[in-house]
Specification:
Layout lengths: L10 H10 L3 E4 L6 H20 L8 E6 L6 H5 L4 E4 L12 E5 L4 H4 L3 H4 L6 E5 L11 E4 L6 H12 L10 H14 L10 H12 L4 H9 L4 H12 L2 E3 L4 E6 L1 H7 L21 E8 L6 E8 L8 H6 L4 E2 L3 E6 L3 H12 L1
Parallel strand pairs: 1-2, 1-4, 2-3, 4-5, 5-6, 8-9
Antiparallel strand pairs: 7-8, 9-10, 10-12, 11-12
């Protein structure tokens, strides 16, 4: 029977594999968000702490690698953590780690220019994720918890195990803070329907461990550049309502970025804005980039909570993407107009 997208390794088994590794690279999806960055930073720091406190563990240079535009808050949260950021055309270093850990994705398409580098190393790759869809052949060891609000929820347990503490409440502040970052951003700062008692208990533990939640919110959510607001105005000006008013659609083109001086990472949070309209049940943002002869359109979808939310994961899977029931996306190699047409057909 072909391998399937499900857990085949426990947290303890993954921790033991990490303990034994002599070199580790932590990867995540292209254009990393708060959960991806938080999970990768926390894991690299936990590995470093593990090597300092456990004489039985081998010395291990661990580092995080990222690709795609980075959010503005990255430098403020990365501190002195060993991390490298690569552009789409950058050559990857001639480094062959003993172990790869991929967090917050298990999809080849989401690994972008890392994919070809990972493929021959899949036998020594671990995936830790919380998304419903992925490619099983990305790794031989997988821990997939689709009930987790963020992959950082799973990493809380793993980091506690790696650093030999009783619970996340006893983690070093430098590890607790990025975990809180992922938990907070993937729950919309604890506003979304994926907030559970377990999420709030973990958040409390991470604050007890020393996370300054007020500072973190300011660093992540209150550092906009004027260009972002100009781009937001363009997105809102494009707003149209489809499907008898329940579907809000916004569009951005490369021209909008060029004329406002905004960057791709500035669109974060835009897709959530139309959900404030009472009748809107699902909001979509289409962003077209690339040259005119080979456009790429990224689709981001968010559905409003309730007893029977629209499953945007199911919609985006039809477009070759995926994600969660209430937050998903896809990347199409076509014009914005064609992507919009295919997206609306996928809702049918």
């Amino acid at each position: 029977m072909p391998d399937s997208w499900q857990t085949n390794a426990t947290i303890e088994q993954i921790a033991s594999r990490i303990d034994a590794a002599r070199s580790i690279v932590v990867l995540t999806h292209v254009k990393p968000d708060g959960d991806a960055i938080g999970a990768s930073l926390a894991l690299v720091r936990a590995v470093a702490a593990n090597r300092r406190t456990s004489p039985s563990s081998v010395a291990c240079p661990a580092e995080a690698w990222y690709t795609g535009p980075m959010p503005l808050f990255f430098n403020a949260v990365s501190r002195q953590t060993k991390a490298r950021c690569f552009g789409a055309t950058d050559e990857l270093p001639a480094f062959d780690p003993e172990l790869l850990v991929v967090v917050d994705t298990g999809s080849w398409s989401q690994l972008d220019n890392f994919a070809d580098w990972v493929r021959p190393r899949a036998a020594r790759t671990i995936v830790i994720d919380h998304h419903r869809n992925g490619d099983p052949d990305t790794a031989t060891m997988r821990h997939i918890d689709t009930s987790a609000a963020a992959v950082c929820q799973t990493l809380g347990t793993l980091c506690a195990r790696l650093t030999r503490v009783a619970s996340p409440a006893h983690l070093d502040e430098s590890i607790a803070e990025p975990l809180y970052l992922g938990l907070a951003t993937d729950t919309g700062w604890f506003r979304h329907s994926n907030v559970t008692p377990a999420v709030m208990h973990l958040a409390a533990d991470l604050i007890e461990a020393g996370t300054n939640h007020e500072r973190l919110f300011q660093v992540v959510e209150q550092r906009d550049r004027p260009a972002r607001l100009r781009l937001m105005a363009r997105a809102l000006a494009s707003l149209q309502f489809e499907m008898n008013g329940i579907c809000a659609v916004m569009s951005l083109r490369q021209q909008d970025f060029d004329e406002t001086g905004a960057a791709p990472q500035d669109v974060g949070g835009f897709v959530d804005i139309p959900k404030s309209v009472e009748q809107v049940l699902v909001s979509c943002l289409l962003t077209e980039t690339g040259p005119a002869h080979a456009p790429i359109t990224k689709i981001s979808m968010r559905s409003k909570g309730g007893p029977d939310p629209i499953d945007v994961n199911a919609v985006t899977v039809r477009l070759g993407g995926g994600g969660h029931v209430q937050a998903a996306g896809a990347r199409l190699q076509c014009s914005l107009e064609e992507a919009r047409r295919r997206m609306l057909e996928a809702f049918a």
